[in-house]
Amino acid sequence: MNREEKNQQMQRRIMDSALAEFAKQGYSASSVNTICAAQSVSKGIIYHYFKNKDELYLSCVQECFQRLTGYLKSALLEEQEPVEKQLEAYFTQRISFFQANPVYQPIFCEAVIAPPAHLVPEIQERRKAFDAFTVETLERLLRPLPLRSHMSMEEVVELFRQFQDFINAQYRGAQFFSQDSFVLRDEHCRKMLEILLYGVVERRDQ
Hints:
By secondary structure, the protein is mainly α. It folds into 2 domains: 1-50, Arc Repressor Mutant, subunit A, CATH 1.10.10; 59-198, Tetracycline Repressor, domain 2. Helices cover 75% and strands 0% of the residues.
């Protein structure tokens, strides 16, 4: 094994330990000492690869959003399915990703719902590709639909963002680390988007 391979292996060990710690404890309660102990490495080794706890946490957040985005892009190929089925598929695939990769789910929730205040700009930077993909998906769903004459696609996307912020606010401070809470939040987002697209009144043919 050459030097580069050893470095990659050590970084992976540190990342796996950090992911487990941040997923279990959240950013504030996590300890670099615990991350060290789990892999039997010194703080000096960790600080050789990561400047501090913030950089280690942001690396975990970045990996989470990168892998989620990559998974969704490969799973959600453009189809000629009805909009309702495509909408359901988007949220179903998100849940499937976290069921297959449970360590990322609490990190995703903390980054989205209650991020460490001093890291908000850095977290937003690391989730840019995910946010852009979400907007692209929503715009793709909207394209075949006849929007009302006074509504633009940009306004609908912004409304969805506001609805999502409202839903996230309801979960802030709650036990969003649990799988059940995450599934419930995503179901609320899906339902809110469905209401945004179709309203709440059942239309009857005249």
